[in-house]
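User
Take a look at the entry that follows and flag anything odd:
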Amino acid sequence: MIFINEGHYPSFHLTNGKLSYIFHVLESTQTLEQLYYGAAIKPRDNYDYLIEREVRPSNNLYQDTHTTSFEHIKQEFPVYGTTDFRYPAIEIAYPDGDHISHLSYVGYTQLSGKHASNLQPMLRAGEEDAATLIIHLKDNYSQAAIDLHYTIYREQAVIVRRVVVHNHGEESLRLKRLLSMSIDFPHDDFELLHLYGAWARETHLERKPLIKGVQNFSSTRGASSHAHNPFLALVAPNTSEHQGEAFGFSLVYSGNFLSQIEVDTYHVTRVSMGINPFQFDWHLDTGESFESPEVVMAYSSKGLNGMSQQFHDIYRQQLLHNETPFEKAPVLLNSWEANYFDFDEEKLLEQAQLAKDLGFDLFVLDDGWFGKRDSDNGSLGNWTTDLDKIPQGIRSLASNIQAMGIHFGLWFEPEMLSVDTPVYQAHPEWIIGHPNKNISHGRNQFVLDFSNPDVVANIFEQMSQILGSAEIDYIKWDMNRYISEPFSNFLKKHQQGELFHRYILGVYDLLDSIRKAFPAVFIETCAGGGGRYDPAMLFYANQNWISDDTDAIERLKIQYGASMVYPISTMGSHVSEIPNHQVGRITSLKMRKDVALFGTFGYELDIMKLSDADREEVRQQINQFNQYQSLLHHGDFYRLNSPFEAGLTAWMVVSKDQSEAIVGVYQSQASANPAYERIQLAGLASDQAYELLELDHESKDIPVRYGDDLMAIGLILNENFTGRADEYWGREKAGEYHSRVFYLKTKKG
């Protein structure tokens, strides 16, 4: 998978028959020149034909040369200055105050699989799964050594990149900027696709042309954030969901990040991604090393769905924590929208018993079980059971619920502190913020300084006492405010620029400690919804609560956008109360189910108030999810109709062997006397006959359609989405907020 043309100035070709990534050592400067990234091509003895060089007005690195300007050479890992005026991948501040670097090639290492990190999340890779190339660079002006890691997987069109910097000198260095990857494309004939949003409307999709100059998306909040997800894609203008080239970039990091695109005056497009340089200043003492997070690069020549499926497969197989106490993905009942802070033990036991009777796998006690937590005004950081609400304690409650035959889970917000807690009274210096300056609150809480190992150890001990005293099967790990006054009372003056990164390393450390102490506990991460929905959190988690907005119509956009990079098996999705608590919309129990079905699937409503008919419907819905869960969570996901473009949304999942599929279609807008709609399917076997069933609808006849027919012509929908007139005549028109789910299975014989 890694082909190397040896010599003093070798070339490197990473390929697996699905993509090729080529660069070489530039003889005149001993630096790395990017030559090609895209569809797989055959290895060659040399790639000189890919070199583009001519005399241009510029500064040149060496005397009597006119083609040694880095401004006009596509860089593999650029530095600023020394003739390149574009934004760099690395910036080192030297002891005498200058920032002038030159990185020279000194060698390479190959290995099967890949190295792991003890500090932060990384994708896994066995020796048979992947191969890794490590390029060794030296800094000409210090004793710094820079290792560029490239891992190519055998089965996916994916390359993973990261950087490690070592200080072998006797003087400390300051890293002002270290991005995980940079690549220069030879043209700017791209459109940019990214995910943006805010609380309750995360991962909305935007696609727009590139501009000359710089465009970037970032976070300065201490978390990857609701505002921008650490993902972007460059796509050809003609790229659709099903055809055309797409280059995706996803950062495995949960803190401040930067995703940047720079188009120069010669149409070269530079993409770079990594830790946000804003307020980043890392002191690298002698003998120390610094590791960047990983960037996952996915390539597709088969449109956006092809790109997404590369991300989905690699994250399901090589990132997610797959060890759980459950035989399958659990259908959970979360207590939040039913109770908020108003509950007692008797109420919880009644809800859990009914949940068991309806077929739920897991009952989750959300916020309000600890300290004196009757509102969001206090008790965070006091992880002791509120005996007024739960007199016999969590251990007894968990035991009583599990005796019913249902699992039990708890909500935590480990990174936050309230001022009414023993921890704050003993250690007010443990919160982030300058003691002599104003410290703002968010949701009446403050952020614990997880750069301090003593803080992490304290919270781990508190959580361990709860988790160790009872059989807790599930944790909902929440985080509900950002860091706005970054100052650590623990770190030294010269280390304050390290706070944001050290904080997120502390979060990883706590998660890792919980994982090691309680390896089978099921973790769902959350940050006020999707405020920290990124691959790094999924390294420790089984799924993520992607938005506090549970409205079925709003969720179409959120889940559609998130599917660009994240598998639907990670998307926490609930059937919730109506009128919806975020937008006030009323949708049917069926539609709420049909949307949540294409996610992790759970409920967040007061089942005690449901009618007998609704309870029976919930029971049937759970049975339906259990029947199709393996297909939904392990098949290939296809987006068919975008909610950002029309009032009709559609998506589907096809099994890996193409023997079955499930399709969801959703009407969010209706009009009088509408035109007929056709939804062209994707991913089916062209020559296979499929039986077509509509879930939740009885039909005497089972239509049979061929895969080529369903992909070329598609499902034919009719007026206001109600079906054929001879079947539906006299039935109330569905209108807006209506959904249908179809199941396809290859016909035997």
